[in-house]
Structure formats: structure tokens, C-alpha cells
């Protein structure tokens, strides 16, 4: 039996981490970059990956290893996660192109890229949280 209070704490801690990362991605997206957007994109992508690792750690109390990641793939389906990774790369590429195009309009560029970066990180965080929680619930229902 899963303790509802413990599950709520895991959800809360994970959601706070997602929102912290969303705030960072939004602020980073709003800052104009005088050079190519690749450095900004790389930094936000690393923050997104770190967020996913932290959410996993909040639920399972351990770091995500290659073996555990393989188990997640088997549980959630390779197609869903593979499609998510491809979609993530596509979103980040589109944001990079959009930001380069809007570089000539500073205020619009900052507002639009901030919203784009923050919302995509939010969606990624919620999707990952759902995947991890589903895996957590499946593992703990097997224990009963």
C-alpha cells in the first residue's frame, strides 16, 4: 500500500523542482544573447536534464542509472519516450531559429523566447513527472 502523504510529498517536491527550472528557463530565454543561441539552448537543455534526474531522485531516492533508465523505457514504452526526445530536439531547434529571426526586435524577442523556453520546460517537466510517478506506482503495486 502506498502511503498517500509520502506520495504527496514526492509530488510536491518534484513540482517545486519543475517550477524552479521553468523560472530559470524563462529568465534565461528572456536574456538577449549577442552571439548564437546555441550556448543558451545547451544551458537550458542541461537544466532540463538535471530537472528530470532530480524528479527521479525525489521519487526513488537514488540517481537514475542506465539500467533504471532502460526499465523506464520498458515500462513507459520506447515509442513514447523516443517521440518525446525527438519532439524535444525539434522544439529546441525551432526556438533557436525563432530567436535568431527575432533578434532584430529586442523586446518582442525577449518576451516570445521567454514564454517559449518556460512553457516547453514546463511541459517536459510535467510529462517526465507523470512517467516517473507511473513507474513508481507500478513498482510499489508489485510490492503489495
Number of beta-strand segments: 0
Number of helical stretches of at least 4 residues = 5
- Number of domains as seen in the coordinates: 1
The average pLDDT value, as a whole number, equals 83
Report the sheet-strand fraction.
under 5%
Helix percentage: over 70%
Radius of gyration equals: 17 Å
What general outline do the C-alpha atoms trace? elongated
Order of helices and strands: HHHHH
Largest sheet: none
| Low-confidence sequence ranges | none
Structural class: mainly alpha
Rounded to the nearest angstrom, the distance between the terminal CA atoms is 6 Å
Polypeptide structure, described:
It is a single chain. This protein has one domain (4-143). It has five helices and no strands. The chain has helices spanning 4-30, 38-60, 66-76, 78-102, 106-143. Helix 4 packs antiparallel against helix 5. The protein is elongated and about 55 Å long.
Feature tags:
mainly alpha
Amino acid at each position: 500500500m502506498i502511503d498517500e502523504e509520502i506520495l504527496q510529498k514526492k509530488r510536491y517536491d518534484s513540482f517545486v523542482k519543475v517550477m524552479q527550472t521553468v523560472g530559470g528557463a524563462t529568465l534565461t530565454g528572456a536574456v538577449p544573447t549577442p552571439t548564437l543561441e546555441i550556448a543558451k539552448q545547451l544551458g537550458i537543455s542541461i537544466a532540463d536534464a538535471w530537472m528530470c534526474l532530480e524528479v527521479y531522485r525525489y521519487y526513488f531516492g537514488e540517481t537514475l542509472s542506465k539500467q533504471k533508465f532502460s526499465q523506464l523505457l520498458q515500462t513507459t514504452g520506447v515509442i513514447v519516450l523516443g517521440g518525446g526526445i525527438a519532439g524535444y530536439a525539434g522544439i529546441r531547434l525551432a526556438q533557436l531559429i525563432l530567436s535568431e529571426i527575432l533578434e532584430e526586435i529586442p523586446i518582442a524577442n525577449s518576451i516570445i523566447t521567454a514564454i517559449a523556453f518556460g512553457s516547453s520546460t514546463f511541459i517536459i517537466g510535467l510529462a517526465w513527472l507523470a512517467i516517473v510517478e507511473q513507474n513508481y506506482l507500478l513498482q510499489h503495486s508489485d510490492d503489495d
